[in-house]
Amino acid sequence: MPDAGSEPLLGRSTRVRSSDLDLHDDALVSALRAGDEQVFSDLVDRWGRMMLRLALSRVGSRLAAEEVVQDAWLTVLRSLDRYEGRSTFRTWVLGIVVNLARSRARAARREVALDSEQEPSVDPARFLPATHPRWPHHWAVEPAAWRTPEDELLAAETRQVLLEAIDALPPAQREVIVLRDIEGVPAAEVCNILELTDTHQRVLLHRARSRVRSALERYFAAPETT
Amino acid sequence: MIDRPLPEMPCRELVELITDYLEDRLSTTDRARFEAHLAECEACRRYLEQFRRTIRALGRLPEESLSVEARTALLGAFRGWSRG
Prior knowledge:
The complex is a heterodimer. Chain A is an all-alpha fold. Chain A has nine helices and no strands. Chain A has helices at 25-33, 37-46, 48-56, 62-79, 89-107, 156-167, 171-182, 187-194, 198-220. Helix content of chain B is 65%, strand content 0%. The longest helix of chain B is centred in the middle third of the chain and has 17 residues, at 42-58. The radius of gyration of chain B is 24 Å and the shape is elongated.
């Protein structure tokens, strides 16, 4: 749902898309409290990928991620009476996934590589030096053209490159790019879910996108020297 | 207003500002510098287009869902919870 970014950012109720489940948060929560299994299973399916990918940003295996998602839903049901509508229901649920996945990763000591503060978007060796008389800090090795139609970006092989690039990201970057670019969650909601400032969220997103782009570049084109 | 030329934005600075540009978070000055550079630099236009294609490709990754086992277990837990 890449268009979600164009929706109003704040104060928006989570909407379930299928017609008979076009409920706002209050109605959703009431339906769950009343034991409406259709609403529950629809939410499990609709948010399934997002919850899984978010969990996978922190835990090491698909199996562990599935357990986090299950734990998260059980926590949601147990805590439903404490949901006060201060954030959207989706934000609240995803926040629970993040907390469970992070604490599980801490327990497994997977919390390693901290983000380096000054990670350049592009290898600095690809730019001319600041002392260059005519073109300081301009491209020395330009980005090579991707000789591939847009369609090929959707091919199975390309998807594999994308998924591997995402796997290789530091967890904090992965959480942001999963929510923003794969799931289309608006920036303000991502800040709430991950408890990030707007600026930090954008820094992490930019680093993640830069790394994924360069993975695609390695795949689609060898850089040309100019 | 004095029409003083803005300091040029080198390629190396531009690549750091693309997300800020796409999210409309650049200052008016930086936005003008960004766009002035783009107008002159084919390599940066290509870089920006690749950045956009990367974002579009990410937005089109296929759906996937919980395993059947996990889903069945969850629905079972829900029934137990709503009865209890």
